[in-house]
Amino acid sequence: MSLNNANRRVFLLTELFEITMGNKLDMNKMTFDAPEVNFVGRSSSNNGVAAKVDRIAGLEPYPSGDITVALGGSLGTSCLQFEPFYTSQNVAVLHALEPMSIQAKLFICSVIMFECRYKYSAFGRELNVHIRDDFNLELPVTPSGDPDWAFMEAYIDGLHSKPVTTGIRSVNVPLDIQNWKEFLVDDVLKIINGKGITIDEIAEHPGDLEAVQSGEENMGVLGLISREYCDEMDYKRVDEPCLTVARSGTSGYVAYHPNGCVVGDSAKILLLKDSSAKNVYVYLFVRTILEANRYKYCYGRKVTEDGYKNVMIKLPVKSDGSPDWVWMEQYMKSLPYSDRINL
């Protein structure tokens, strides 16, 4: 089914949805004693869900079926929520004025993100100013000019993909965090600072090395650049698996790069110091631990080398008190779909 064959008309977003500005909660003030409510932030990963938090007395969560739109961070990221939720600061919530199918909402989420990609930016044409005013989107319409919900539903249903399967049976491996030990990031990771890399440089010197800056989209990868050019410019690169952390923008966001990368001035490379630990499973385990500290870098607080070195993280340990890299690897391998990881 082709989108090019559909008649279209422009609609104001307010014609289709009641738009509110979310709960404006801070995740670092949430509690996690009996978490049951999704907490939606401004991230483009995990459908925007940062964590599950405790229900707040007197504050009813937004219902499942509403759409969240990030007004900062991963600007414009639009996600259909399938469970009740609270929101962080700068997240708008869209509630359909008329009954609307899941497929139609997913179609509209894609259109919203497309509109935001070029028309809105932080500190420029800000989305939060326009979303309840003149934000518009072009949708397929019927001959009478109404939204063609049937076309949208059929289009989404026609996007076939093969279901992902796993040969790993779900095993409840206990995470005995009380017996984990605290380490400084500097105890386990080497930090490599980047230098400025531009989109123009990547276009003029194409290659096969991932060039990484801040940002969550595509794991911060701007494009592929020449290794030889990076060496000529003395850009910091590695040719082995590594993590990167965003210094600014989406500060604290951590991504895994299986084939190494070069980083610009808004990101840093993180390498495990223990060579025996350098495999995809351990890196992904450590990435999750580091991401749990991301809330510390909201409101423009940047990741600095000295500050990040002194961040405390908890890891499983062996009887001698050193990190138990083997346990971390085996834990990751026990998770469903771990057999789908590209080694």
Question: What's the arrangement of secondary structure elements?
Answer:
Blueprint: E1 8-12, E2 17-20, E3 37-40, E4 49-53, E5 67-70, E6 78-80, E7 85-87, E8 91-96, H1 102-119, H2 127-130, E9 136-140, H3 149-157, E10 181-184, H4 185-188, E11 189-193, H5 199-204, E12 206-212, E13 221-225, H6 227-232, E14 237-238, E15 242-246, E16 254-257, E17 261-263, E18 267-272, H7 280-291, H8 305-309, E19 312-315, H9 325-334
Parallel strand pairs: 3-7, 12-17
Antiparallel strand pairs: 1-9, 2-8, 3-4, 5-6, 5-8, 10-19, 11-18, 12-13, 14-17, 15-16, 15-18
Helix pairs in contact: 1-3, 7-9
Total number of strands:
19
Mean pLDDT: 91
Return Rg in Å.
22 Å
Helix content range of the residues, please?
10-25%
Number of domain units: 2
CATH class placement of the largest domain: Alpha Beta
Low-confidence stretches: none
Report the total helices: 9
Strand composition percent:
15-25%
| CATH fold-level assignment of the largest domain | Adenine-n6-DNA-methyltransferase TaqI, Chain A, domain 2
The biggest sheet amounts to: 4 strands, antiparallel
**Widest sheet: strand ordering:** 2-8-5-6
Distance between the termini: 36 Å
- The helix/strand class is alpha+beta
Sketch the topology as an H/E string, one letter per element.
EEEEEEEEHHEHEHEHEEHEEEEEHHEH
Tell me, briefly, the overall form.
Answer: globular
Question: Looking at this structure, what is the CATH superfamily of the largest domain?
Answer: DNA methylase specificity domains
Examine the secondary-structure arrangement and name the CATH architecture of the largest domain.
Alpha-Beta Complex
